[in-house]
Design brief:
It is a single chain. By secondary structure, the protein is α+β, with helices and mostly antiparallel strands. It has helices at 4-17, 134-137, 148-155, 162-167, 177-187, 200-221, 226-235, 268-271; strands spanning 25-28, 51-55, 58-63, 66-71, 76-81, 96-101, 110-115, 123-127, 255-258, 263-266.
């Protein structure tokens, strides 16, 4: 799933390559991806792209008063091309959901929005204000700009596990499964810690980890083409997606907790005092 650093890098790329160009045509290959009917997507035709921005994990293209807002969900991606095919795509065929021509079809650049797999979550809105998108309207403060007192306030009173709070976009915007694992590992905090019961020293560590992990990931990602962002993300991860491998900090084996449709990874030595966390696949459960 693209998270804050990858979305920030895509926004940076679009500022350099899309802003200033005019939308010639938008092709909708998957009507299920389009979440608005008015204004129609055809009103984007002939409008210049004025700005590219980010709201949490949402992309926002300001097209001279209309906003093309994109959420890539778990398996979506943006693929830039210097020349896009002129022929309109066939609806329902393959991973392509939306194609945006930023020049004459067949001779101009643009980008495709694609989504792998059978579970479709990629979403596109055409709105007059980003605040019309429910997911944006309900976003919490951005993880990349939150200061330490702000983080303490965000966590205050929450009885949920830290992993849950860090990935709930209405509480804290921008983090997903991967970078929340990385932040908790860097902060030496258990994913099962109660968010509202962290000490002042633990909140300090968590805030420092947020700044370090996100700034490093953004720094490594900015300037890369979208096609290279996934591999760059994987190369910088210390625990997420590394089940069974040694922790690069202490050498302990990275462990995994699995749920019905996702999993997270952690280091017992660095984060849980050597204890193994509860996992639905295990016969014994440890809290």
């Amino acid at each position: 799933m693209p998270e804050l650093p990858e979305i920030e890098a895509i926004v940076h790329y679009l500022r350099e390559h899309a802003v200033g160009r005019t939308i010639n045509r938008v092709d909708i290959a998957s009507l299920a991806a389009l979440k608005t009917a008015a204004p129609p997507w055809t009103e984007l035709h002939g409008r210049p792209v004025r700005q590219a921005d980010r709201h949490g994990k949402f992309l926002d293209l300001d097209c001279d008063g209309l906003h093309l807002v994109i959420h890539l969900a778990r398996a979506g991606w943006l693929r830039w091309a210097d020349v896009l095919a002129a022929a309109p795509p066939r609806p329902g065929r393959g991973p392509l959901a939306v194609r945006v021509h930023l020049g004459p079809p067949g001779s101009g650049p643009g980008f495709d929005l694609t989504e792998a797999g059978t579970r479709k979550g990629l979403a596109v809105w055409v709105v007059r204000s980003p605040s019309e998108v429910p997911g944006i309207e309900n976003l919490g403060p951005d993880a990349a700009t939150l200061d330490q007192p702000g983080l303490a306030e965000v966590l205050r009173g929450h009885t949920e596990r830290l992993k849950t709070v860090l990935t709930r976009q209405s509480i804290l915007a921008g983090l997903g499964n991967a970078y929340s694992d990385e932040v908790m590992h860097a902060a030496r905090l258990s994913p099962y810690a109660t968010a509202g019961r962290l000490t002042a020293e633990e909140i300090d560590r968590l805030h420092a980890a947020l700044e370090m992990v996100l700034s490093d990931a953004v720094h490594r990602s900015i300037g890369l083409e979208a096609a290279r962002l996934k591999s760059e993300k994987r190369s910088g991860l210390r625990v997420h997606g590394r089940t069974g491998l040694p922790c690069p900090i202490c050498g302990d084996t990275v462990r995994e907790v699995s749920f019905a449709d996702r999993s997270f990874q952690y280091c017992p030595t660095c984060q849980t005092g050597g204890r193994t966390l509860a996992d639905r696949r295990r016969s014994r459960f440890v809290k």
